Amino acid sequence: xxxxxxxxxxxxxxxxxxxxxxxxxxxxxxxxxxxxxxxxxxxxxxxxxxxxxxxxxxxxxxxxxxxxxxxxxxxxxxxxxxxxxxxxxxxxxxxxxxxxxxxxx
Length: 105
What we know:
By secondary structure, the chain is an alpha+beta fold. The chain has helices spanning 2-21, 37-48; strands spanning 34-36, 51-59, 62-68, 74-80, 84-91. The protein starts with a helix and ends in a 14-residue tail after the last strand.
């Protein structure tokens, strides 16, 4: 199961980087699953009761966030520096892992 999660996350990151590498699609190819970050977060909270669960920096141009609900639904979004967020993946059975503490500095 952990292998499936890692493979899925790897694919999500690759897809997110690909989306961010060409952030301005042609008008005829506009992405329907993108909106202002605040609108996306409000939609996820109201429709799916999802809240922030994880965040990671993709590069200087984009941040990846996972939103999850207690019922196990989850959504991965990527937000660029202009504040535009795109839903990349969504799924079921989100299971938060315990936080691993690193060595003290």
